[in-house]
Amino acid sequence: MAGADFLQLDPGQSPRNGRTAWLAERLRIAVADGTLGPGTRLPATRVLADELAMARGTVVEAYRRLAEEGLLVTNRGGGTIVADPVTGPPALRESPVSRPGAVDISSGMPDLTAFPRAAWLKAERSVLSSATQRELGYTDPRGAGKLREALAGWLGRSRGVAADPGRIIVTAGVAGALSLLAQVLRRHGVTTWAVEDPGADGNRRVLGHWLDHLVPVPVDGHGLDVSALAESGERAVLVTPAHQFPTGVVLSPFRRRELLAWAERAGGVVIEDDYDAEYRYDRAPVRALQATAPDRVAHVSSLSKVLAPALRLGWLIAPPALHDDLVHLRWATDLGSPTLPQLALAQLIETGSLERHLRTLRRRHQARRDAAVAAIRRYLPGCAVEGVAAGLHLVVRLPARLDDTDIAARALEAGIAVHPLSHHRFAPGPPGLVIGYGPHPAPRLERAIATLGTIVSAE
User: Fold this and answer.
1) Pick from 360, 357, 361: which is nearest to 439 by CA?
2) Which residues contact 147 (CB under 8 A, 6 or more apart)?
3) Residues with Cβ within 8 Å of residue 274, at least 6 apart in sequence
4) Per-residue pLDDT tens for 385-409?
5) What's the rounded mean pLDDT across residues 267-273?
6) 390, 279 contact by CB (below 8 A)
7) Cross-referenced InterPro entries, in alphabetical order (predicted)?
8) Which terminus of the chain is more solvent-facing, meaning fewer CB atoms within 10 Å of its CB: N or C?
């Protein structure tokens, strides 16, 4: 970038709005027109300040503004680069509701630019310097003992989960946990599961690979309809009780009791997907189901929405009757998860780094949630917003006359990837849009939602 014409002030020129605003605008334009493409590394603030004969604080502030807008990513020790506008995971970018180059507000992802790189690298260095021969060899298929001990304490404190370290199985995310459970339950004669309707399409696709078929059970304002579950005759059900996906409904106390009574009566298994338990903004955390009925509830979760999906670190705490079969299958599948990342995570938990990271993310995601809600009220007046008290996504209810699939297709043509609510349904239902706000700064969210507003108002 040295000597770039677009960053040169004429001799004696004094920008009307100040040098910080001028520099930020010139960089913003360069990103928009492709002069600075995704991944381009910008000069260090001191270097660029010297080249432009500006105060270093001017450059620091310009970089900060663009980072807040999501145009730049600054990593401690890694410099500042131009952000990739496609922030969703590959599976979503390749889906019918997304495409390369679109602003992807379809997923409930965290802000991955906030990944604690310095803390993770510090933990990895510590692990590499202290790991024993035993830890570097073949490990327990349940996972590294240090991580299971750290998780037992953390889950007990944060979610009320009752877990001895020996009962925890480290998995490749929630998908890995569901795959293990589906295979083991099949061996116990359970070849079909009940699932929430609407429910997470990704989980449905994973389970569809292992099971004969899935039985949808309606969700209403109190969560899963347990009476409908009982009528289905199923013996296993996948639920998201603390923050139903995608509606955001919390399973009511009465329904929680009903569900656990069903499991006891039917000899059934409740698979509790605690997928975003860490994000609560306007209400207290809801205690995990597993703590009330550990003999009937399999608790699964991961770090995909806390650190990053790429780590592929999750956990499964199953009823004792299934535990040994699950451990044996984990061993037979791949001998267990990689040990070094587990030991690094254990250090993050033990040193408090994970909790500090979570506090930062909660503040950031709450601000983005507020920005998304404000934009919806401005650009989609009359559309109800649901699921705002927790998580990383919300649901916008559209007028009944509209087809949410058509709205999503039109949005994609305009460069905005968003999930129609029908994408997560078995049975037809009221139209809506599922909007993920975690990865996006407020200005980008507002622009995307303004585009949705224009499309909806034109229908």
Assistant:
1) 361
2) 170, 342, 343, 345, 346, 349
3) 159, 240, 242, 288, 299, 300, 301
4) 999 988 899 999 999 999 998 999 9
5) 96
6) yes
7) Aminotransferase_I/II_large, HTH_trans_reg/aminotransferase, PyrdxlP-dep_Trfase, PyrdxlP-dep_Trfase_major, Tscrpt_reg_HTH_GntR, WH-like_DNA-bd_sf, WH_DNA-bd_sf
8) C
Q: Cis omega (within 30 of 0) on the bond before 216?
A: no
Mean predicted confidence (pLDDT) in 226-242: 96
Return all residues near 380 (Cβ < 8 A) that are at least 6 apart: 396, 449, 452, 453, 456
Are 315 and 349 in contact by the 8 Å Cβ rule? The answer is: no
Contact call for residues 163 and 147 (beta carbons, < 8 A): no
Residue ranges of domains in the chain: 5-82, 90-109+355-458, 133-351
- Residue range 133-351 forms a domain whose CATH class is alpha beta
Cis preceding-peptide flag for 165 (omega within 30 of 0): no
Identity of the amino acid at 445: L
pLDDT, residue 92, reads 34
Distances (CA, A) of 334 to 106, 164, 327, 392: 32, 23, 11, 32
Comparison of pLDDT for 282 and 378, the residue scoring more: 378
Provide the pairing of β-strand 297-302 with 314-317.
antiparallel
Mean pLDDT of 6-28: 68
Q: Which CATH architecture has domain 5-82?
A: Orthogonal Bundle (1.10)
- Phi, psi values for residue 271, rounded to 5°: -100, 110
Q: How far apart are CA 316 and CA 313, in angstroms?
A: 11
